[in-house]
Write a structure and sequence with these properties.
The protein has 286 residues and is an alpha/beta fold. Helices cover 42% and strands 14% of the residues. It has 10 helices and 9 strands. The strands form 2 sheets. It has a 6-stranded parallel sheet. The chain has a 3-stranded parallel sheet with strand order 3-2-4, with helices on both faces. Helix 2 links the parallel strand 2 and strand 3. The termini are far apart. The structure holds NADP nicotinamide-adenine-dinucleotide phosphate (NAP). The site of NADP nicotinamide-adenine-dinucleotide phosphate has 24 residues, from helix 10. Keywords: Amino-acid biosynthesis, Histidine biosynthesis, Hydrolase, Methionine biosynthesis, Multifunctional enzyme, NADP, One-carbon metabolism, Oxidoreductase, Purine biosynthesis.
Length: 286
């Protein structure tokens, strides 16, 4: 008998739909308000991976009819200088969303920098205020990867309510907020991290697994509960996720591929949230 294979959660197609919708909204704002929605991208230093990520986000902006304005700062930038630069962008009425590319360098207080972004322009969902909104259910932007994961779950009609969701990883931009969003959807959430004991047995209890570790093929199929929904947010060298895809696919009911699962949803969410930010800013004076 052939082995059962999980259904793929296609982030590429869903992201395209979201970007098309974003492009329509951007065109309407430009036509009706004569304002081109603008995302400021801020990069400290010249880390090649960060340069590539920022360039990719700028290109997607262009394709969706958004303007991007790039601020390149030297690696020697201090926390105070970065906070100042973000303050200037926050006060600039021509900028509707701000993305500070992570990581910013060990000598910079990243939390202070993130919190220098005006919450209404925090389209990447990195400020403490946005985190509080994700945790407490108030108004605010979701971190883009967690927000993209929730959009994927919604699209594939996965209702987390009552599910045991296990999140492996607790970073401020990914693991922690995705767990908060799942809790907000009434999942029973367990966080795992580098101090977790018996990881395999916790993973094997998951109805919904989110892998956000940054270690290639770290979670193997035999640890996955048959029928589980598996979200692989990991992205490692060689296009490899945190979940061993071939073995996991024989156990899960739904699974995100890498690439083509969570990754495209992150940028699509960033662009959609830039329009979400621009609309009230451009119509506030009417
Ligand atoms: P991170 O900041 O390095 O966090 C990794 C997390 O994994 C930490 O919470 C760490 O625990 C935990 N961890 C490390 N070793 C572990 C172990 N042996 N057992 C259990 N947990 C362990 O990474 P990140 O920024 O969240 O990114 C995670 C992955 O997602 C990476 O592959 C990254 O490339 C990918 N990512 C993808 C997107 C996308 O758009 N697709 C966006 C962002 C990130 P401690 O807290 O105890 O150290």
């Amino acid at each position: 008998m052939p082995t059962a294979q999980a259904q793929l959660m296609n982030g590429t197609d869903l992201a395209r739909t979201l970007i098309d919708d974003t492009a329509r909204r951007a065109a309407a704002l430009t036509r009706d308000q004569h304002v081109v929605p603008t995302l400021a991208t801020v990069l400290v230093g010249d880390d090649p991976a960060s340069v590539t990520y920022v360039r990719m986000k700028q290109k997607r902006c262009e394709r969706a009819g958004l303007r991007s304005e790039h601020v390149a700062l030297p690696a020697s930038t201090s926390t105070a200088q970065l906070v100042d630069a973000l303050g200037v962008l926050s006060a600039d009425p021509g900028i509707h969303g701000i993305l500070l590319q992570h990581p910013v360098g060990d000598h910079i207080d990243e939390r202070a920098a993130f919190d220098a972004i005006a919450p209404e322009k925090d389209v990447d969902g990195v400020t403490s205020q946005s985190f509080a909104a994700m945790a407490l259910g108030g108004n605010g932007f979701a971190s883009c990867t967690p927000g993209g994961i929730i959009r994927l779950l919604d699209h594939y009609a996965v209702d987390p309510a009552g599910m045991h969701a296990v999140v492996v990883g607790r970073s401020p931009i990914l693991g922690r907020p995705v767990g908060m969003l799942l809790l907000g959807r009434n999942a029973t959430v367990t966080y795992c991290h580098s101090h977790t004991r018996n990881l395999g047995s916790i993973v094997s209890a998951a109805d919904l697994l989110v892998a956000a570790v940054g270690k290639p093929n770290f979670i193997v199929g035999e640890d996955i509960k048959p029928g589980a929904v598996v979200i692989d947010a990991g992205y490692n060298a060689g296009n490899i996720g945190d979940v061993e895809f071939s073995s996991a696919r024989t156990r899960a009911s739904l699974i995100t591929p890498v690439p083509g699962g969570v990754g495209p949803m992150t940028i699509a969410t960033l662009l959609a949230q830039t329009i979400d930010a621009a609309e009230p800013q451009t119509t506030a004076g009417e």
